[in-house]
Amino acid sequence: MALAHSLGFPRIGRDRELKKALEAYWKGELDEAGLRAVGRQLRADHWQLQQDAGIELLPVGDFAWYDQVLSHSLMFGVVPERFRTAEGRVTLDTLFAMARGVSGACCGNAGTQAQEMTKWFDSNYHYLVPEFSRDQQFRLSWEQLFEEVAEARALGHAVKPVLIGPLTYLWLGKVRGAAAETEGFDKLELLERLLPVYGEVLGRLAALGVEWVQIDEPILGLDLPAEWKNAFERAYNLLQQPLPKKLLTTYFAGLEDNLGLAANLPVDGLHIDLVRAPEQYPTILDRLPAYKVLSLGVVNGRNVWRCDLEQALDVLRHAHERLGARLWVAPSCSLLHSPVDLEREDQLDDELQGWLAFAVQKCAEVATLARALNQPDAPEVQAARAASRAVQQARARSPRIHNPHVQQRLAAVTPADSRRASPFAARIAQQRARLDLPAFPTTTIGSFPQTAAIRLARQAYRLGKLSETDYVEAMQAEIRHALSVQEKLGLDVLVHGEAERNDMVEYFAEQLDGYAFTRFGWVQSYGSRCVKPAVIVGDLSRPQAMTVAWSRYAQSLTDKPMKGMLTGPVTMLMWSFPREDVSREVQARQLALAIRDEVADLEAAGIGIVQIDEAAFREGLPLRRAAWQHYLDWAVDAFRLCSSGVADATQIHTHMCYSEFNDVIEAIAAMDADVITIETSRSQMELLEAFEAFEYPNEIGPGVYDIHSPRVPSVAEMVALIEKAAERIPAERLWVNPDCGLKTRGWPETLAALGNMVAAARQLRDKA
Ligand code: GLN
Ligand code: ZN
């Protein structure tokens, strides 16, 4: 009998109950007992939902108060010194302090800085980076996992606790401490000290009568250094014991060169992600020892589409013949990355509703697939398969998906469409003549503070409480305000301020054909924060201009150059749920053509500078190096396709809010934006090194102040930073701007910081 199991369930709740409870607790409106009760209820509900859907082994340990990596840090006693209290007790408040920091009271207390947060592999989930010291000791310090196992047991469930494996846990962490202390220290040296705690955890679980544990080692999908590969064997040899049995799980990428290693570790089963890396099957069958369970992840845990059951069954049936009861059926990865329950949606049309599946529905799909192997003739199985076939057929033919105009236009694109008319040197000469900007031109990244008034107006308009005319007038008033501020400050290239935008992707998605929106499709991003990505349903196109009226209005108020503001194709794609029936590349190109039209319309409206933000450009990089070039090729081309339709004298900017460019600098240069603005202030301009070494030819605006904090840097500080930048990039190619948009800031610090920024640029001009 093939078994249906799941790797993890979203913890946030179908109505984001956990988010609400956490935020109430942080505000002091809910006490700890209240918060714990909400958590307990969510866990009980989620186990029940999964069980009702037909999942036979339920995950435990997938619930976390903030983040599952952080839970492991607590479990292993990896609590940095600064979060330790005098009594040394680790509490829920220790956990939240590590996650969120503690703000300083008054009087010289600097507060306690939170742990660093970063992206979980190539997903949009963020985890808290474990902080190790060189002399790190590990000690079982947090009972949550055992308590939750007992809790699930008490509810009568068959459970499979979920652990992050020791190698992945170490890989995700960072050694902190004084340079002298950490230099030359390899965190892999901590493994020997860490393993006994894993042994202890497994022993405790065995004592609780747990038969199987799931051990996640997603780093097996990465390019691993030889020492790490060797460490896998060592570690799992040491962790050998008869019970609990171990299912080693890998996801987000194929095992490739790690396949033999993963297949042969002394564990009892292996899970592979066949959604991301279908080519792993059937190769895996030849490599897997005959005693092991093989779990096949065939239901996509990272997207919202209903599974094509027939396609999944083709593989599963073959595997079942070979493996029998040793075959397990699963989602590709934890369902943490899926919205919770499609049943919650009350405003989707029937057609679209029929195409989608969220976590609850995905569990049912997994169960149906297992059942289809075990009892192929069961009427429910027959009905589910017939429904799946009908959906796939209807979708394949639906005009909602296929837009012949878009497809024809895409087919007619030629390489020339992705090339500006002239090389940069010729373009910049024309742009300089047209724009007549001073040295060290000053600008901002686009957004100004999104005040409560702006949000209220937008909300009222959405709810129909504010008429279109009144809404437009309210937004125009914001534009007038943003412009008068910028003129008074003396900025050189102005922006309209983006008051009308809720979000840099959703705003455009709502105006494109081919997108759909859910009401409750929330996915945890970090802690209590959730995102609700738009869904790319079909071929994408732009029925009409999206931003031109606002930019034209703004330009009419000033003689200074106005910068139009768009989101680029790669970022649009990366922050949406994509289609699965066409490649990412095709979707990016469709988006690029839509944006290209907008760029052309802005140009025609007299806007001489257009910025196309690609905040998510780097995020799109595949996990394996060997796949990078293919991605970079199409991603760069998508940007060029959207930006190359303009005259030489029209200046194209792009913006990326990070600064690791070393390994992608060639691609960044190939994008051929006339100006790129990047985040650099916190790194003291050191991150311009990549641009210097590459002899990056175009203009650059390295951020001169960090917008993530309300701190107002002094004029002298910014002068010093720009001078540092000028050591690496010729001064005539430097722009002066903040690190990113200002939407999360308040007006007072924005005015003060921009005032100092303009003064800094002026000082430098005077010096020159
Ligand atoms: N133009 C956007 C803004 O200023 C850019 C945001 C971003 O890069 N994340 O808000
Ligand atoms: Zn940014």
UniProtKB/TrEMBL annotation:
Family: Belongs to the vitamin-B12 independent methionine synthase family.
Name this polypeptide is given: 5-methyltetrahydropteroyltriglutamate--homocysteine methyltransferase
E.C. number(s) listed in UniProt: 2.1.1.14
Encoding gene (name): metE
Chain residues that bind 5-methyltetrahydropteroyltri-L-glutamate: 16-19, 119, 124, 529-530, 575, 619
Molecular function GO terms recorded: 5-methyltetrahydropteroyltriglutamate-homocysteine S-methyltransferase activity; zinc ion binding
Residues at which Zn(2+) 1 binds: 655, 657, 679, 740
Cofactor(s) this protein requires: Zn(2+)
Active site: 708
Recorded coiled-coil stretches: none
Catalysed transformations (reactions): 5-methyltetrahydropteroyltri-L-glutamate + L-homocysteine = tetrahydropteroyltri-L-glutamate + L-methionine
